[in-house]
Amino acid sequence: MEKIKSIEELRKLREHARESLKVRSGEAKVKIMVSMGTVGIAAGARDALMAIISELEKRQFHDAQIVERGSLGLDKEEPVVAVERDNKTVFYGKVTPEMAREIVAQHVINGQIVSEWVIAKE
Amino acid sequence: MKIYRIHALICAGAQCLAAGGNGFEDALKNELKKHNIEEEVRVVETGCMGACQLGPLLVVYPEGIMYTNVEAKDAKEIVEEHFLKGRPVKRLMWKKEGKEEFPGLKDIPFFAKQTKVVLRNCGLINPEDINEYIARDGYKALAKAIVEMEPKDVIDVVKESGLRGRGGAGFPTGLKWGFAANQDSEEKYMICNADEGDPGAYMDRSVLEGDPHSVIEGMMIAGYAIGANRGYIYVRAEYPLAVRRLETAIKQAKQTGLLGKNILGTNFSFDIELRMGAGAFVCGEETALISSIEGKRGEPRKKPPFPAISGLFGKPTIINNVETLANLPVIVDKGAKFFKQFGTEKSPGTKVFALAGKVNISGLVEVPMGTSLRKIVFDIGGGIPEGHTFKGALTGGPSGGVIPMEFIDTPMDYESLPALGTIMGSGGLIIMDETSCMVDVAKFFLKFTVDESCGKCVPCREGTRQMLKILERITSGRGREEDIYRLEKIGELIKLTALCGLGQTAPNPVLSTIRYFKEEYLAHIVDKKCPAKVCEFSALKGGRNKYEAKVTH
């Protein structure tokens, strides 16, 4: 453990540490919902999920909540990933790990919807 | 920094561990490994979450879903359904009157109706990780105090906050500090009294187990304010988990330089040492505690001089209780005004109670001072188990008294409780229904003080013993008509003449039950009946004279 030598260093450590506890606040700027029904999993939802986590980690973005949920009935479009940001929910279909990474980089972090993969909006 | 999509918080308070929490945690970790999601789910051991009766407890974030009574065999279902497929396991969720599940922690009345200041981190952070404490504004108040404030300013804030000692007496904390701060002495000491001993009370243990850094930070703030560089935590040896977590916390605080020499580049240095109590209740009394730290027999001495003038090793010493100390970082960081928004004018802030006895959800609850007993028992504690009725609540443990049904709406604060003949005490709150015999309850607590009396002064050593003999007589059907008068007479005398707080308050449970439940005493004495059917009078037959010969003086 490193020594904290000033009030400024303590503040930096606090802000850094706060990020890792973000999940427990139950609040986040962005909510990412991955459909994890049987069809979703068979179509590769877990791979998409893993890609999402790894991309968030790579970019050190902590203000996102990852929620798994059941199937929406859109079997044809699985894996389905929904992103809720700025009071708007956008659904992406047939999400591959590569697409998932792109969605994180564009939409989750920067708020730019990746329109070509959008299947529905709410 | 790693990102985990799920945080699984397992309550590792002593009760949940005793209920099998460890077994569940092992099973959960096994399942995570089996499904290869160890990297996605962070398992955190926290301190007490409060709903001890329903433990072991598990809270899953980001949803904030609480699972109760989890067992090792439930781990598989939680991982496969909830963690993998996002389907919460309804059968294990906290349910409204046994039917509908509460969607999250915030919807459960037991939690929603509490106000957490002291327990702000308990059950939410890992007490063995200083970073999690720092993330929740930990050591921010210390930094503010030692970098930006003069010791006098710190005392002023605490005075203005109106904080009163949570150990039981309710003495204004800032005022007490002022006495020690004004002493001109090179050595001063700051002591944390963690010798919690009231039967059924475990507020302090939970804070030590769940948020040890808050106590350490509080001690350092106090130390800075009064000019002490050395602190002692006097903790019961019967609290091994609290001791372990304190040791870990002190070690981590030292490693990060938050405890030691020239903290945060200032001139302020502070060191803390743990001292283990050896199981004597009287050592919770401040002068006895000081003797014990000095290596002497744990006996109280006469006051004055008060410890703030001449305490440990004859030096100015401040002794604050665990809960008092845990309030300090909040007061210094957020200001007196923030603190005063909770509670009443004369008793600001919150109070933690250990709710026990005949109540549906027993556990640890924190409410604003002045909250009514009714709200604590019925709104938060879920009322009395079906088929039974509330009879009374005992506050202040062996030093306190009973609040009967007719006063259930009394605000719980430092002014109202003494008016009823009881005390706030440290926070033990034992609920009784019609199956509890009040004479028997009084006997139980008096027996406790008789056992724990140190024997130094006559009123406590002899007086409580005589009172107990009378109670034993009454509860075995041999009570005499003058017994109530005698109990009151001896009790009042002990209150006036005993040396320390233990003796001065020892008669309270007896006097208070006589005050509100005299007819129950009379039923025992005159009718030779125990209305609650607790006391057994079987020895009565034939043996009466023999027994009386034994107890007459």
Task: Offer a few descriptive terms.
heterodimer; A: 122 residues; alpha+beta; Glutaredoxin; 5-stranded mixed sheet; 39% helix; elongated; B: 553 residues; alpha/beta; Rossmann fold; Ubiquitin-like (UB roll); 4-stranded mixed sheet; 23 helices; 15 strands; disordered C terminus
Low-confidence stretches of chain B: 542-553
Class by SSE composition of chain A: alpha+beta
CATH architecture of the largest domain in chain B: 3-Layer(aba) Sandwich
| Beta-strand content of chain B | 5-15%
Main β sheet profile of chain B: 5 strands, mixed
On the 0-100 scale, what is the average pLDDT of chain A?
A: 92
Percent helix of chain B: 40-55%
Write down the domain tally of chain A. 1
Contiguous helical run count of chain B: 23
* CATH level-two architecture of chain A: 3-Layer(aba) Sandwich
Structure notes:
The complex is a heterodimer of chains A (122) and B (553). Chain A is α+β, with helices and mostly antiparallel strands. Chain A has a single domain, classed as Glutaredoxin, CATH 3.40.30. Chain A is 39% helix and 21% strand. Chain A is built from four helices and five strands; from the N terminus they run αβααβββαβ. In chain A, strands 2-1-3-4-5 form a five-stranded mixed sheet, covered by helices on one side. In chain A, α3 packs across α4. Chain A is elongated, with a radius of gyration of 16 Å. Chain A starts with 6 loop residues before the first helix and ends with a strand. By secondary structure, chain B is an alpha/beta fold. In chain B, 41% of the residues lie in helices and 14% in strands. Chain B is globular and about 75 Å long. Chain B starts with 5 loop residues before the first strand and ends with a helix. The C terminus of chain B is likely disordered. At the A-B interface, α1, α3 and β2 of A face β1, α3, α5 and α6 of B.
